[in-house]
Hints:
The protein is an alpha+beta fold.
Amino acid sequence: xxxxxxxxxxxxxxxxxxxxxxxxxxxxxxxxxxxxxxxxxxxxxxxxxxxxxxxxxxxxxxxxxxxxxxxxxxxxxxxxxxxxxx
Length: 86
C-alpha cells in the first residue's frame, strides 16, 4: 500500500501516461482475468461483432479503471530522464 492507503498492483510507466506491468499477484490476477475474457469472448462470440463489443468494451473499461486506481504513484505524465520520483 502507498502512503494514501491505496493498493499498488501495477508499476507506473517510465515514459508517458498510464500504468505499466503488474507488480503484485493481484495485478497479475486482474490482467490474467482480462486476457481470459478476451480469448473466451473470441472463442464464443467470434462471428458476432456486436456481442463481442458488448463484452470487450465493458471489460476494457473495468481494466482501465482498476489499473488507474492501483498504479503506484497514480497516473500522470512521466519523463524518466527529467524526474525520477517513482
